[in-house]
Write a structure and sequence with these properties.
globular; Quinone Oxidoreductase, Chain A, domain 1; 2 domains; six-stranded parallel sheet; six-stranded mixed sheet; binds NADP nicotinamide-adenine-dinucleotide phosphate; Rossmann fold; about 25% helix
Length: about 325
């Protein structure tokens, strides 16, 4: 089968497009014919290599897969060949200490076929197109869990989203707007800000030219005068962390699901204790989170923005676009 793969960790130059063996489903697993694969920053982290996470080599990234069941492994019941599915990309066994992630710890969907556990499958309604479905699990599942399950966002609250142009960022904008929140979206260019306002963001901050903490202080007031926003979403961390803490209002929340800009960050201690904020971590998503997102798309209430749809042969360019921060919304690859 054709796949985008790498034999060693490294920069974009280690990626190849070519023939690899078709995977066979183990007992209890199924093989999927990939119809659409959604890219995430995870594809870049997995290819580069991450401390503490062992990636199967040769590696095939692609954590989000809308596909059709192509072959059942021994013992699989309740599923048949030809069904459209959207697997939950990860499998966690907390008691056994086992964590698997499609396209990270094992080969993923940047290929014509991939295998998943039958227990990870979720049926795909006819009304949801492959491209829209493949946009959902990692970005929308994570955003849903971070905003609702962990962050408890409420109607009327103001949410500031950093890195708002990416997959998780645009998901946060749309899910927060659906909840009736005011959204301030921060991104790295005026063009991106314009596109985020068109998506529904109430205000935008171009952090290439404007400091986010200054903008929030000037538009809402200082912390001691009740300024700040109810919730800040920050998955870029690094240099952005301390400034984002200064945007949280008294008793507000700072939500984090990643650190694209660096895992080490400075904590602004006075703002932490003066605001009495809660810093809340969030990771992954549950079957219920993914189903909630799928139901929103099926009912027409949520329409994930897709920056571009590429063929698998153009998959390396698709990853390049993500890595160069040249996208708004999701990048989808179709074998
Ligand atoms: N814990 C979990 O379960 C989980 C799940 C999903 C994602 N994540 C994490 O969430 C983050 C976002 O993922 P994603 O898939 O939404 O990524 P993405 O689609 O590539 O979006 C990332 C956005 O972040 C902005 N950004 C800010 N600083 C950046 C930097 N130093 N390098 C690259 N981009 C930067 C970019 O927008 P501008 O150019 O406008 O700044 C970019 O559009 C990643 O760190 C990812 O690992 C975690």
């Amino acid at each position: 089968m054709k796949a985008v793969y790498f034999e060693e960790h490294g920069d974009l130059s280690v990626l190849k497009y070519g023939e690899v063996p078709v995977p066979e489903p183990a007992p209890g697993w199924v093989r999927l014919r990939v119809k659409a694969c959604g890219l995430n920053y995870l594809d870049i982290f997995s290819r580069r290599g991450m401390p503490g996470i062992k990636v199967e080599l040769p590696g095939i990234t692609g954590g989000d897969c809308a596909g059709v069941i192509d072959k059942l492994g021994d013992g699989v019941e309740g599923w048949r060949v030809g069904e459209r599915v959207l697997p939950v990309s990860h499998h966690v066994d907390w008691e056994g200490g086992q964590f698997e992630m499609l396209g990270e710890t094992r080969n993923g969907a940047m290929a014509e076929y991939c295998t998943v556990r039958a227990s990870q499958l979720m049926r795909l309604p006819d009304s949801v197109a492959d491209e829209k479905a493949a946009a959902l699990p990692c970005a929308y599942g994570t955003a849903y869990r971070m905003l609702h399950t962990r962050g408890g966002i409420k109607t009327g609250e103001t949410i500031l989203v950093l890195g708002a142009s990416g997959g998780v960022g645009t998901a946060c904008i749309l899910l927060a707007k659906l909840t009736g929140c005011k959204v301030i979206a921060a991104a790295g260019s005026e063009d991106k800000c314009e596109r985020l306002r068109a998506l529904g963001a109430d205000e935008t901050i171009n952090y290439a030219t404007t400091k986010i903490d200054r903008y929030i202080r000037e538009t809402t007031g200082t912390l001691l005068r009740g300024g700040g926003v109810d919730v800040v979403v920050n998955f870029t961390a690094g240099d952005t962390w301390a400034a984002s803490m200064r945007c949280v209002k008294r008793f507000g929340r700072l939500l984090c699901c990643g650190g694209t800009g660096g895992y080490s960050a400075v904590t602004d201690i006075p703002y932490l204790f003066m605001s009495e904020m809660n810093i809340i971590g969030s990771t992954g998503w549950t079957v219920a989170d993914q189903r909630a997102c799928l139901d929103l798309v099926a009912s027409g209430r949520l329409d994930p923005p897709i920056d571009r749809v590429c063929t698998l042969a153009d998959g390396i360019d698709a990853v390049r676009a993500l890595e160069e921060r040249a996208v708004v919304g999701k990048v989808i690859v179709k074998p």
